[in-house]
Amino acid sequence: MHIGMMMSSYQGESTFQSGAELQAHTQIQLLKSRGCTITVITKKRSSHSKYKEFINGTAIYRVFPAGLRSIRAALLLLQHRRQFDVVHIHGQHLFSTPVIVLCKLLAIPTVLKITIAGQTTSPMALDKLLPRGWNPCRRLINQVSRLTSVYLAISTEIADELKSQGIAPNKIVALPNGVNTERFHPVTSEVKQQLRHALGLPSDKKVLLYASRLIGRKGYDIMLEAWKSIQLAYPEAVFLVVGKGSSEAIHALEQLQQELGKDAIFYKGEVPDTAPYLQACDLFMFPSRQEGLPNALLEAMACGCACVASDIGGCSDLIISGENGLLFPSGDPVGLADAVKLLMSKPDQMDAVGQKAHETIKANHDIAIIGENLLQLYCKLINER
User: Fold this and answer.
1) For residue 12, is pLDDT > 80?
2) What is the pTM of this model?
């Protein structure tokens, strides 16, 4: 089976990778292990990158220039139309719109994955120049997207959003994101101590981790506000922050570090692999304001972390509050601090919650399971063509 994958960015052009890109990469590796051939069509974002290259056996085309990428992508698809059995599009955006139309004309099945809640309702860049609420560009893209074979909804919130847009339920396939549980998994106490030593973390304190971008949507400001209360109640705990951020976010973090002391906060910046940090920590905080089905939370739960997350979209799909984690009201730093302190006050419960989190991911979100379901969907669409 030859699968075309379309996404806004893919490996090799920056150290930062979006959640959608990371999830696509995880799926591509699984599909290749099942004998599939993958061709990626993405945007060229750097003058140094090649138009075509192979990375670990995957053909990658990077189209340019800006403004004509969508047309170039459609022409590339037309050129290779006899190769593709199905085209999988990650995200609803202008880049992929002509491809959906062309695939419909060529009778190539398409899977359109909605990667984040609100994607079908948020205004496009050009819409923001017009009176509020008009959104003609977004409406046009929504209308054209209806030509896709199926929509892929990774969370209940996204499925409901699609239904509210008038998409027929039989055209919506609920399939969540997956995680590689061979890479993200719990470790023994001995290995945890070894990891802490290697990462420069204290071995005798509780380590609370935030591992995501330091941007407003991810709620870093909520986390920083909550930490003051948490640290006051548990001065023996340390705060570990992993992720790239704006200068404003880094400044806010440094100010808090000066206020509470250097030994209270460890900032590691962007790291190539978050797995060791997740395996070395005791509790994971995820205060995001908007998500699809977050990779960061999937990975933390897979590693057996006790997780505290905002009660939004995909987080509510993953966590049954009180069983395999705790949810707090989105945007509420007091609620976040209270949930963290509740788990900290009950160490045995915190361990049990972490174990249950791992079991949840292993049973329902292992990439092997998600990948097989994805393959079955592809086969169904090809057979119906």
Assistant:
1) no
2) 0.91
